[in-house]
# Entry
Amino acid sequence: MNNFDQDTLNTQGLNRFLSKMYAYMAGAVAISAIMAFVTARFLQNTIFASPMMMLVLGIVSIVMVFSLSFNPNRAPATSIAMLFIYAAIEGVFFSSILTTFATKNITMAFVSAAVVFVILSIFGLNTKKDLSRFGRQAMAALLALLIVSVINLFLRSTAIEYVFSYVGVVIFTILTAWDTQNMKQLYLQYGNQFETTSLAVNGALQLYLDFINMFLYLLQIFGHNDEN
# Structure
């Protein structure tokens, strides 16, 4: 097989992998949205009235996200099921958004997040620049943001919350490009060593988290601006 044929096969394999990854990511977002609506419409009073149920769902969610992140070589059906179950649980927690924020703000935040996500994901796939340094810096900034957010739970400062909403958007914008590039490189380097469907699910999880967090921070910005 000549180099042209090999390059064609590599490109076709990469395209199939990326198609799977984005399809799973889109499916996870859709499941979260559906579960948020169903919970807000029919189940919110029941679920949120039970602290034990909320605790169990929270623990299951954390276990699943760590399991999916650190074991990308499990059976494909198991990986897909875990991703969608995790997305459904997150949708339950997101249901409070529908009763807290105006519909126009939710729509604006979702559309804005989708546009930014698509642009940065395309950039991550096509740029020749190594984004790993920026990704590591974004992860460090995210850790600092989480610490400040925890502190702000006690301070209850709307100013801090508002400012760091912008920081959060910037962080997850960078992470979107980095995670996209990283998953492309992982496939090209190790695609023959992993079950590619499970690897695609792992990438879908990373991008799902990037998109959802970007959406949540944008929603805080739009909601704050609307109040003022």
The mean pLDDT is 86. The first helix runs from residue 3 to 48. The chain is about 90% helix and 0% strand.
